[in-house]
Amino acid sequence: MRELLAHVAGFLRDLAGGEAEIHIDDGSLIVIGDRGEASVRASPDGVRVTCTRRIMCRLAELAIYDYLARDRAMYNLAVVGVSTGSEYADAPASLPINVNAALVPLVVLPFLMALFMGPLYATLAGTALIVLGYLAVAYYVSHRCTYARAVRVVKAYIPQERLEEARSYIRRRKRDILANPDLMWGLGARNLSVDDVELSSRAARICVVSDRTPNAVAVAAPLRNAVVVTSGLFAYLDRSELWAVLRHEEGHLRHRHTYKLLALAIAEYVTRVSLIFGVPKSYIGAVLVGMYLLGVFLTFVAVSQLFELEADRYAARGSRLVLARALIKLGWNSIVEEKMFGRWNVLRSIKDNHPSMEYRVRKALAGYARA
User: For labeling, which of 113, 158, 286, 323 is most exposed (least CB within 10 Å)?
Assistant: First the structure.
């Protein structure tokens, strides 16, 4: 705990402003600076922050998050290889379609059908289109992605002046590096980490695609559940944090969130058809339809955010701290923005289908509190 307090003290010394006065004892830290006064107390039960000004609370909490994910700066280069047999090679390319874009016609086409058909035929045809269209996209994704048995992740910290040289070398000899990671020492690596991750899940088959953006998506379909993981996720997280993210996606599948959203989409479509044929064709009718569509949007956002929190709770059964570290690493820039511009975060959360990353981190850290 003293290491945590020392880290927070160093972080706040640069951000508190002015000649900050900092006192550390065995279990607490007190900071007095131009931006207010803050107290951080650490115990086996968790960490508590009290402060006289809101900005000091935000800075102290940000310092704690920085401590939890402090190893994210140890590496600046990663090589990811996928094994489907006996050796490691490049992860296959990303799927050639944008899944979200492919789902757009499932929203637009039933609406157009409702304009040119009677209510009964529009309801039946639109519902069939939604269900069959979703299954087609889900089966396409689960069949096109390559299932991986294991992934090798080679991470290193390369001095900035040799970073471009290292990247060029990796592009030419990636397979050699995956087979013999010690080649990275010749590029001036200061830290080197090699991790072989065995991929398995009872809820789905796991496949890896080549994409620098860290992400994981659960795709549910009868007898064909799959979790698509990008190579960038392996570059950002260590083994335990990766499994926390995979458990989050498994939570989506266990709780059948995809099917629940599909049922909600069908119910919304049936209601929309009834509204189109039931409201008067006038200014009042247009206002009612507009209010309905706004309500549908807010409902889908709220339900999606609740599902994300439920999947987080499922993942947190393994380790709340590990899940929190993974969320901090993946959303560090977002967390900083949320801490510095908290009022705007409320407006952004209205349109996002994920809760704010900082809120998810706070929920994951059971013992963390702010007075």
Answer: 286
Nearest to 216 by CA among 165, 265, 250: 250
Give the pLDDT confidence of 313-343 residue by residue, as tens digits. 999 887 888 999 999 999 888 888 887 776 5
Question: In terms of domains, do 226 and 294 share one?
Answer: no
Provide the number of structural domains found in the chain.
3
The answer to whether 24 and 5 are in contact (CB under 8 A) is yes
The torsion defined by the Cα of 308, 313, 316 and 320, in degrees rounded to 10, comes to: 90
How far is residue 78's CA from residue 81's CA, in Å, rounded to a whole number?
Answer: 10
Verify that 186 and 300 share a domain, yes or no: no
Cα 220 from Cα 2, distance rounded (Å)? 45
Query: Against a cut of 0.85, is the pTM above it?
Result: yes
Domain membership of residue 136 (yes or no) is yes
* Whole-angstrom distance, CA of residue 342 vs CA of residue 338: 5
In single-letter form, the type of residue at position 100 comes to N
Residue that terminates a domain, selected from 181, 203, 236: 236
Percent of the chain predicted with pLDDT > 70: 87
Q: Which domain holds residue 355?
A: 99-143+256-365
